[in-house]
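Researcher: We're teaching a course module on how sequence relates to structure. For the next exercise, students receive a sequence and then see the predicted structure as tokens, so they can try to spot secondary structure elements on their own. Here is the exercise chain.
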Amino acid sequence: MGLKMIEETVFTKEEIIEIVKNNYNIEVDQIEKLDRGSANLYSLNNKYILKEFQSKYTKEEIDKEIAIINHLSEDDIPVPEYVKTLSGEYSIIYKGRVITIQKYIEGYTMESNTGDYNQMLESAEYLGKIIKSLETLNFDLPSNDVSSWYSQETINESIEKQENLLKKISKSTYPQIYKDLTDKISMLKYIKDNLDFKDMSKLTVMNTHGDYSVLQFIYKDGKINAIIDFVSACKMPIVWEIIRSYSYIDKKAKDGKIDIDNLVQYVKAFMNYVQLNEYDLKFMPYLYLVQLLASTFGYKQYIADNSKKSLLEFAYFRTNLCKYLFKNAEKISNALIEELLNQN
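Model: And here is the predicted structure for the students to work with:
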């Protein structure tokens, strides 16, 4: 379920050779385009990786990401090692794109929901280690104010967004999409009338990766060899990152049905490094549910372009998660509190 929205490269191979020589004094005689993530990646001499970021990213953002990665490296977390330019910088700008070079990371990527039990727990442990390490980061990360996800006003906007997309299709032409959007609207309306959000302000907010999942791992011999892409790092309720990353790695969650016992073990492994409070455990499934219900991602893209089938499959997966969480959120909360609240 790896989703990629890759922009066309600004490079020719000749330009890569010239840029790398002029800025890094590295002679390149072998270039291979890599099919990994949402950036344009090139292997150079099987020793380095050149990364061409999407145009939306600024040099300041990427330099901050590298500072985060260098901080995590000091705490023995497996992250990329970046190469400095001749002028002592970690990034350059070429044709409006930010460019970095890092040492080659040996390994492979895994698709979503293909992780076994041990790989699932390893993911949880590294998330705990990352958040623990980022407690001592010496600069501020942007704050992701997720309170906007669950306000009455935002839920009304989410309902309107789903309804507007529903108006663009017919039940006969897109029966499954029509049903899913209708179901999401119904769930949002129920949540608006029945869920009390006032205690969500008590969720634990800390620095975190921001987009942590199996899609950001490079594996070697079945174990994580590197964790990448910290450009979304921010301060936010960490329980969202916990349950989201669980839902993307556990093979038992492949159809959008959370294995509650496995989720409990995932959170338990995380809590070996960072503690959670009662409100974290109570609202974890609800926070994730409301965020997923608000999104039209996947459906919107497929309706506009029927070739985007991978995005549609991703949308189906997330709606299945919504349906499962909607029916089982209280059960999940109770299990987490019962099993973990007094573990230490």
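Model: If you want an answer key for the exercise: The chain has two domains: 13-103, 117-340. The chain has ten helices and nine strands.
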